[in-house]
Amino acid sequence: MRAYVTGGTGFIGANIVKVFAERHGATVHCPVHSFVPEHPQGYTIEQLNLLDAEAVVASVARFEPDVVVHSMILNDLHGIYNQRKLAWRSYVEATLTVADAANRVGAKLIVVSTDWVFDGTQAGADENTPPNPVNYYGVLKALSEQAALLRADRAAVARVSAVNGVHWARNEMPRGQDPGFGYFVTTVLDAVSQGEPFGVWEGDDINMTATPSLASECAEAMWLIAADTQADGIFHCCGAEPAGRMELAHTACEVFGHDPSLLRSVSPDPEMMASLAGARIPYDTTIRTLRTTEILGYEPLGSRELLERFKQEAETGDLIATTGG
Q1: Which of 7, 24, 110, 241 could be stapled to 13 by a disulfide with Cβ–Cβ 3.0 to 4.6 Å?
Q2: What Cα–Cα distance (Å) separates residue 162 from each residue in 84, 92, 251?
């Protein structure tokens, strides 16, 4: 398989690249823009601005992929609100562009999306639950989903939730604890592994409950979508069970062998919250995988199992054999 992966040097994208190329032997190509790795392992790169539609269509045509996985995002909630036109172009228009590019070469399009397309009161949402986003990021992702499904000849949406794991393209995560769940476990472990106390944010105005996932397992589910010519529509590429922030932090400490008594419940950082430009945060974004399991035969793993796999990946510096599919 030939896979064209946007955002391939980002957190989720780097896991997609590694799973597709190393675990499944795909030939992978990544357009890169702001971060250019010096020595890409197992894939090729080119510098490309995804807002340049003609350049994107030409790039995809040269590579002639079987699948285009669109994982690139403008990963900055504050910036999205401050530069709304740029955000629209980066999400919705870029998705339309890669859909057109995929159509030109007869490739399948997979767009990576998020549990934040739900409003925080739709606990246990499945793939058929109508989205109802409460902030601009959620709106942009929901519209990008529709752009892909309506524009591409063959399209799938891969929603992820509370993703943690190893960042294969960079040595450090882009940020620490924030109102969502991204990078949360790594931030906890960085503190408690040094014997330092860690304040777990808890409050009514942040994402308190989600469905923890492992980035490499999300990527494995996307591989199944790519490999199945009949798999289109919406999929939930996530773990099997919901968890709150403190619960997840405790389980992570136990799995990684650290002292959970170092954890404290604290209010969210007021400076961080003030920087969100008034954006509302969905409280409970737990999702289920009913359609995903039925169509792909993929059985998601529970939080402890996912964290155990995360630990093995972190310790070995490589992927481990998957149990999914």
Answers
A1: 7
A2: 25, 23, 14
Residue with structure tokens 């859909």? Answer: 99
Give the per-residue pLDDT at 173. 66
- How many other CB atoms are there within 10 angstroms of residue 236's CB atom? 29
* Rounded distance between C-alpha atoms, residue 227 and residue 148, angstroms: 18
| pLDDT tens per residue, range 147-204 | 999 999 999 999 999 999 999 988 776 668 999 998 899 999 999 999 999 999 999 9
Q: Which parts of the chain fold into alpha helices (H)?
A: 11-18, 53-63, 77-82, 84-88, 94-105, 136-151, 184-192, 215-227, 245-256, 270-274, 290-296, 303-316
Token readout for 152 is 């591409």
**Among 110, 124, 109, 123, residue whose Cα is nearest residue 289:** 124
Nearest to 116 by CA among 174, 202, 182, 183: 182
Structure tokens that stand for 91 in this block? 């999400």
Q: Which of 248, 253, 38, 70 is nearest to 152 (CA)?
A: 70
What residues pair up with 113 in beta bridges, in sequence order?
Answer: 159
Directed axis angle between helix 245-256 and helix 184-192, to 10°?
Answer: 50
Over the stretch 114-135, which tens digit does the pLDDT of each residue have?
A: 999 999 999 999 999 999 999 9
Tell me how far apart the alpha carbons of residues 305 and 287 are, in angstroms, rounded to a whole number.
Answer: 18
**CA atoms of 212 and 245, how far apart (whole Å):** 10
pTM for this one? Answer: 0.95
What span, in angstroms and rounded, lies between the C-alpha atoms of 113 and 137? Answer: 10
Count of alpha carbons within 13 Å of 87, Cβ hemisphere only?
A: 18
Three-state SS at 57: helix
CA 152 to chain centre: 21
HEC per residue, 273-296: HHCCCCCCCCCECCECCHHHHHHH
